[in-house]
């Protein structure tokens, strides 16, 4: 799969399917491969573009300068590289911060916006938690313990009832061939902490879908729904029995929400 030099990094990306372009922007510590469970469903109807954010996956160097603005500019530069004037942007978690920044600063290029399990800024509780995760990484915590601690926060209680599924998720994370470095993780954490677009939400012109996981501990639905009220042309979908990591826990339901929104628009 291709890489292209963009804004000082070699950006890795994949394109799947044909049709109207849909770019999927991953969250903290995630990359293009986090979308695998739903790529087939989406790519039957759309040209699906999945980049590795700077500081993650196969995009190098991982220790590059980073901020939400940097990642947003990378997304728009990737559209330039692909000769696409615009695309629907779907951002999950930190990727939602990136997608909002794109929609605010590049309104003509983002006609439709999908914000999944995210908010216009991070809470202080989350900032402290994410910084603790970064410290745990640097401390040499056992990797399996680190991922289990992460999963307690991003997955629902239902997920832990299936021991084999949990074991498979841990094995995938531990064996992943393109792990994120400690430095790159910390830089993404600080990029999240520095972002706040609450006073610019009214500038978002895109037709917007807000998707929440009913059991999300990091971005509870009632908080996200309240905070996104300032977006004019928006609708809300709450997925039951799922927590923060919607693409991992319920890719089918997420894909259905996305396709219905894009078909209705």
From TrEMBL:
<protein>
    <submittedName>
        <fullName>Alpha/beta fold hydrolase</fullName>
    </submittedName>
</protein>
<keyword id="KW-0378">Hydrolase</keyword>
<dbReference type="InterPro" id="IPR000073">
    <property type="entry name" value="AB_hydrolase_1"/>
</dbReference>
<dbReference type="GO" id="GO:0016787">
    <property type="term" value="F:hydrolase activity"/>
</dbReference>
<dbReference type="Pfam" id="PF00561">
    <property type="entry name" value="Abhydrolase_1"/>
</dbReference>
<feature type="domain" description="AB hydrolase-1">
    <location>
        <begin position="21"/>
        <end position="251"/>
    </location>
</feature>
<dbReference type="InterPro" id="IPR029058">
    <property type="entry name" value="AB_hydrolase_fold"/>
</dbReference>
<dbReference type="InterPro" id="IPR050471">
    <property type="entry name" value="AB_hydrolase"/>
</dbReference>
